[in-house]
C-alpha cells in the first residue's frame, strides 16, 4: 500500500469516527514515552559535554548500549534509570508524554 493510499484511508477512518483499539493506543503512548526518554538522555548528555563513551563509563555501560538508549532501541530498567540520572547529575521527571532531567543545582557561594 502506497503512503498516499494509506494516508487517505487513515483520513477516512478519522472522519468516520474510527477509534484505535486500546492496545494500539497504549503501544503508541509507550513508544512516545520511550522517544521522549531517549531525547532527554541525549539532551542532558550533550548539555554536560559528555560523549556516549564517557556517559557509558559513568554508568557502567558500553557506548553501544548508550547509543541504543538514545536511539530508543532499548528501554532501561528502573535501576538503570537511577544510574543514568546520577551519572547525568540530575533527577528524572516523567509523565505520560514528557521526560526530562532536572539538574541538581549546587551553590558555590
From TrEMBL:
Q: Which residues form the HTH cro/C1-type domain?
A: 45-95
Kindly list the GO molecular function terms attached to this UniProt entry. DNA binding
Q: Which SUPFAM superfamilies match?
A: lambda repressor-like DNA-binding domains
State the superkingdom: Bacteria
- This chain's protein is named Helix-turn-helix protein
- Lineage per the UniProt record: Bacteria, Bacillati, Actinomycetota, Actinomycetes, Mycobacteriales
Amino acid at each position: 500500500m502506497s503512503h498516499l493510499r494509506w494516508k487517505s484511508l487513515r483520513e477516512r477512518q478519522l472522519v468516520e469516527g474510527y477509534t484505535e483499539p486500546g492496545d494500539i493506543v497504549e503501544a503508541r503512548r509507550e513508544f512516545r514515552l520511550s522517544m521522549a526518554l531517549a531525547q532527554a538522555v541525549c539532551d542532558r548528555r550533550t548539555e554536560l559535554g559528555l560523549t556516549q563513551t564517557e556517559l557509558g563509563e559513568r554508568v557502567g555501560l558500553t557506548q553501544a548500549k548508550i547509543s541504543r538508549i538514545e536511539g530508543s532501541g532499548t528501554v532501561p530498567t528502573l535501576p538503570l534509570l537511577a544510574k543514568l540520572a546520577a551519572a547525568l547529575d540530575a533527577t528524572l521527571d516523567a509523565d505520560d508524554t514528557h521526560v526530562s532531567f532536572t539538574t541538581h543545582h549546587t551553590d558555590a557561594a
